[in-house]
Design goal:
single chain; 153 residues; little secondary structure; six-stranded parallel sheet; 2 helices; 12% helix
Amino acid sequence: MKNSRRGNARSGQHPEINDVARPKSSTLVFQFKGDFSRLLSSSAEQLKELTELDLADNTIAALPEELKQLENLLQLILRQNRLETLPEWFFQRFVSLHLLNLGYNKLRAIQTAISNFKAIKYLYIDHNQLSKIPVEICKLKSLVGKLLSTNKI
């Protein structure tokens, strides 16, 4: 299940996605289109070791609770969905993320609990409906790349 699609400027994806350090041989990548919650409920045990998950270009309006089971994620791409908010558990569960791409959604706010993401290197929240950015983002010491453009700020 190796993901061959990588970022390039022409497709609207960010080239920095390739720059994130990856574990050598244990990387498990999965790109999915469709009903992810149904897939998770039937394949939860096999997907627990997943380190990269690309759910871009789906119609996800709310994160399924089953996503909590993926405790080894380092990269999560939720670009181009219909997310308006993120559940509190999201900021508690995925503190080891190195890359989070929430671009091109309908997010109206980012919770201050984003400060829990101590390992985050790349954060993309561009093309949403954010009217303010929490100051906690500025306190993320490991952050080397962020994209906040095309919001209501």
